[in-house]
Amino acid sequence: MELRPILSTLMRHKTAAALIVVEIALTCAIICNALFMISERIEQVRETSGVAEKELVRVQLTGIGNDDNAAAQTKADLASLRGIPGVTNATVINQVPFVNSSWNSGVRLSQEQQQSTLNATVYMTEDQFVETMGLKLVAGRDFEPDEFLEYEELEKPSAQLSIPATIITRKMADKLFPGEDAVGKSFYSWGDAPIRIVGVVEHLVRPSMQGGPSAREYSMIFPVRPHYNVGGNYVIRTAPDRRDEVLKAAVATLRANTPNRIILDENTKTFEELRNDFYQAPRSMAWLLGAVCVLLLFVTALGIVGLASFWVQQRSKQIGIRRALGATKRQILRYFQTENFLLATLGIVMGMTLAFGINQLLMGRYELPRLPLYYLPIGAVLLWLLGQLSVLGPAIRAAAVPPAVATRSV
Question: For an engineered disulfide with 162, which of 24, 193, 276, 399 has Cβ 3.0 to 4.6 Å away?
Fold first, then answer.
C-alpha cells in the first residue's frame, strides 16, 4: 500500500493526529516506567528471607524498669519455651526480619579505612539462632560455645569491645571479597579489633529497607547473647499447623514466668503475618500502578477509537469513491490500520525517549534503579497491539460502507 495518500490525509488533520501521537507518547512513557516499578515491587514481596517463615512465630515483650537479673530470666524463658509441646526450638534475638527498624553498623576492611565499605545490620544471637531460624550455611561453620559473649559484658564501662567471630550472608561476602572465599577473612565494625568470619549463610534479610533493595541482605550475625530487654524478641519454631496453638502457649508461659513485663500483642504474631504487614505498602503500590496502567490504556484506546470513528465519518466520500473504483474491504481495512500504525509508531518513538528521561529523574530523586531496556519494546508492542485493536472497529465499519450509499452522500 502506498503511504502518500495516508500521509497527505494526516497532514490535512495535523491537530487531531498530533493529539493522538502525544497521547500515545505519554502513555508509552508512563506504562514503561510503571511496569518496571510494578516488577520491582513484586520482586520485593517475593524476596527470599532465608528463614523458615512458615514455621516461626515471634513474641515481643518489654520489661518494666531495670532488671538486674535479665540474663538469668532470659535463660529461664528459653527453657520454658523449648518445653512447650510442639516447639522444635526457640531463641532470643535483638531484632527480627520484616519490621521497620534495625540495628546497623558500618563495615570497614581495614582499621585505617575512613569510610565504610558498606552498612550492615547486626543480629545478636545465642547458641540456637541458626537452627531455630532455619538458616542455611553454605560455607564455614556455626559458632563454637566459647565464642559467645554475654550482652551484659559489652555494657560495662570498662569493657574492651571485641567480637571474636561472625557469620555473614553470601551477598555481604561477595560485596566485601568478590570472587574470594570469605571464611577466615576479617573486617572491622564494632571496636578496633578485627572480626573474623567463620561462616556464610545463603540468605538472611535485614529487618528494614535501609539501604534499598541492593542492601537487603547485608546482614551479619554476632555471637552476643542478648537478654529479653534487648529488643525483646523471642522466636519459636514449630510445625506450620501448630503455630497458632504454640503462639498462645508461649504468651501464657512468658506471662506466668514473671509479671513485671508487658507482652506487645500487636507485634506478637507469625512470621508470615510479619511479612504480609511489612510488604503491604509495596503490594498496594503495585495494585495502584496497575490500575493507573489499565486506566491509561483505556483512555488511549478511547482516543484512538474516537479519532478513527470521526475520520471514517468525514471520509465517507473518499471511501465510497475508492470502493467504486474497485477497492476491496480488505484494502480499506488495511488503510486505516496502516494509518494508525504510523501514528502509534511516532508516538512510541517519542514515548521511549520520554520514558528514559522520566527514569533518569526517578533515579536521581528516589534512588530507583535504571530502567532495563527490554521494558521499552514491551511497552511498544503493547501500544501497537492496543492501537490495532482500537482502530479495528471503526475500520471494519468503514470497509462495510456500500459504494452507492457513500456516493449519494456527496
Answer: 193
